Amino acid sequence: MSFENLLPRPPDPMLGLIQQVASDPREGKIDLGVGVYQDAEGRTPVFDSVQQAEATLCRTQSTKAYLGAGGDAGYVERLGAEALGGGHGLGGLQTIGGTGALRLAGELLARGLPDRRIWIGQPTWSNHEPLLRAAGLRIAHRDLTDPSRGTLRHEALLDALREAPAGDAFLVQAVGHNPTGIDPDPALWEAFADVAVARRLVPLVDLAYQGLGAGWREDAAPIAPLLERVPQLLIAYSCDKNFGLYRERVGALFYRGANAEETAGLRDHLLAIARVSYSMPSDHGAAVVRTILGDPRLRSGWLAELTAARDRVARIRTTLARRGRIGGVDFAALGAGRGLFAQLPLSAAAIQRLQAQHAVYLAPSGRMNLAGLNDRNLERFLAALDAVQRRSAA
Ligand code: LMR
Is the pTM of this model over 0.90? Predict the structure, then answer.
């Protein structure tokens, strides 16, 4: 083995953007790239509720001694109760963000599935596939795009699952589909539960944006058919977005086996995987979430902040949808989506020109983070889009 064999690699499409935006000196750059909430001033603030919880922790936390590979059990229990309604025979452990939860889930599935296969609808978050492959899974795709309707056909994944070998897994995003904002409707969630039961498939639900779609309770409601009816289930949860704790990396993996014994076995394996990967998650962010959820005053303050963030993004979506067609993009179609994201049908050249000539940053796929728009930059963004698209057409 020689390090000379390790050829340079392209930067990650999302994380590379963070650096590019940061190093762009132009005034008025518009960051519609990485999926973090921005307020009307273009800032990603620390929530007041988080700052208050941090102050409380500073005063009251009496030890920093190890907690173990499962992290903060109180955090996991409160989060499970608040986010998923508690019960359902779910076990849980704290993870390093939602990505860490996905990675643990992937490694667990790679140990347990007969063919190590997971079905994924495309497009999806740019890290889903590399991450799950790195965890040891084999990926089977279904293209969900429906150019005729300019939307997603989640049914295409369902059709594939109806033929999938028993014991396969499939990935579904619960809310705020990354990158399109188009979520499965309630009938589809019932159908996912039906097919999982009938063919003994394991759903891996990615729940990363609860509260930023239709509402805190509303955003977990669609997965009720899975929780109620599917025996084996994994839910990768992120608190990074809904608590604004991004860099603190706060997540959880909820899991359930076919019976209590199997669920206990899953826990043993997950703890073992965590132990050989990073030993245990860091404490602070999870302690903040536990503190907020355990204090009625902080909890209601946090919910108000989350609601304000959600409403702001929804207003941007409505404003854009009303604008109809600009630069060849049908913004009216955005009205059907929810959450931070929308996918614009732009060529790589147009995305590059937006960046180079107008300091407008989108993900390389054309994914746009709506939260990057505000009253000051929305018209500039639309004018830039129109300009680059005219140039492409010329
Ligand atoms: C995103 O999709 O932009 C975020 O989830 C950040 C990331 O890790 O890619």
Answer: yes
